[in-house]
Design a protein that fits this description.
Aspartate Aminotransferase, domain 2; 12 strands; globular; binds ligand TLP
Length: 359
């Protein structure tokens, strides 16, 4: 039985075209800067993002944490939305590697997409008293994973970055799924990336490549980032085999992300019809669907365990929230199948109400 794996878009297997490209990749030692395929990938990415330079890194987490390291110093604060990946899912790397402290902030409208007002109140700029930690970085995320794949418009990105720059505070953009955001907003990638000082994006998420992410910024920033990548153990040798798959992903995948978004929409609409499930349909604009099962009186972990027995994989974030992510290994029919299996699981697990009149 083929599993319907909706845990993440990281689970995709390389396409036949990626496998071919990996097999035929021209390679060299990338620690010496001599891997032609890695170099080409970095050049192509820098061009798409309209940044001076790019660095291929093994993971999105490493890309984000190198950026935090370069923008901050020990004792500094990083302002980030409270559900941001850098803060929630990268262990305490910000403090372990950079000695920095996260200053999580809420988005006033609950969307996860920050407004300047949300950020401003949390900033310690130059005029702050000497005994508070200075804000050295603002970290944004587009699309915003834990906020259900919500997207930040070009206008909002430009505004937040302009305001931050007025205070001499740099902005790092965690764009793990920026291609999904660009498709949802119908904007060029560069328009969403341009205002930020540094950007990280992943080949191994919606784009479907097996491994790899990219960190982008100025030439000086990337030169320093290369040293930090090595220090963190991320100097890869014949990494061209990975870069070759990433190049195919860049060429082939953006055009088909819209299918994943349509499937996520179909999934969310199906979920909204199930009694006890709450999903904010307005927020489902990319490939992520987060829904609340509290009203079913069941535990999200038990629901996921039930789904697993029926061949559907989903992630429980806590006792009430489940995440499902669409990607190219999930067909529209499988979305319908997953919904049917979920209905069965709920039916099976729902506490049977006992009518005392019969006792
Ligand atoms: N996200 C993973 C999990 O860690 C939750 C996923 O399945 O979605 N930024 C964002 C916005 C991400 O969603 C992720 C991965 C990363 C960074 C880190 O990328 P990797 O896993 O390559 O270190």
């Amino acid at each position: 039985m083929k599993l319907i794996d909706l845990r993440s878009d990281t689970v995709t297997k390389p396409t036949p075209a990626m496998r071919r490209a990996m097999m035929e990749a021209e390679v060299g030692d990338d620690v010496y800067g001599e891997d032609p395929t890695v170099n080409r990938l970095q050049d192509v990415a820098a061009e798409i993002f309209e940044k001076e330079a790019a660095l291929f890194v093994p993971t999105g987490s490493m890309g984000n944490q190198i950026a935090v390291k370069l923008h901050t110093k020990p004792g500094a604060e990083v302002v980030i939305e409270e559900r941001g990946h850098i803060y929630n899912y990268e262990m305490a790397a910000m403090s372990a590697i950079s000695g920095a402290l996260a200053r999580p902030v809420k988005s006033a409208d609950g969307s996860g997409i920050l407004q300047w007002g949300d950020i401003k109140a949390a900033i310690h700029a130059n005029d702050a008293p000497y005994y508070v930690a200075p804000t050295k970085l603002i970290a944004l995320e587009n699309s915003h994973n834990l906020a259900g794949g919500a997207v930040m418009t070009r206008e909002r990105t430009e505004e937040l970055c302009a305001q931050a720059h007025r205070l001499n505070i740099p902005v790092h953009l965690d764009g793990a799924r920026i291609f999904n955001a660009a498709v949802a907003l119908d904007e060029p990638i560069a328009a969403l990336a341009r205002p930020a000082d540094s950007v990280m994006f992943c080949f191994s998420k919606g784009l479907g490549a097996p491994v790899g992410s990219m960190l982008l910024g100025t030439k000086d920033f990337i030169n320093e980032a290369r040293a930090w990548r090595k220090l963190l153990g991320g100097g890869m040798r014949q990494a061209g085999v990975l870069a070759a798959a990433a190049l195919v992903a860049l060429e082939e995948s953006p055009a088909r992300l819209i299918e994943d978004h349509t499937n996520a929409r179909r999934l969310a609409e199906g979920l909204a019809e199930i009694q006890g499930i709450e999903v904010d349909l307005e927020r489902v604009v990319t490939n992520i669907v987060i829904f609340d099962v509290a009203e079913t009186n069941l535990d999200a972990n038990d629901i996921c365990a039930g789904l697993r027995e029926r061949g559907v994989l989903a992630s429980a974030f806590d006792q009430r929230r489940i995440r499902m992510v669409t990607h190219y290994d999930v067909l529209q029919k499988e979305i319908d199948d997953a919904l049917a299996e979920l209905r069965s699981v709920l039916e099976e697990q729902r506490p049977k109400t006992v009518n005392s009149a019969f006792h």
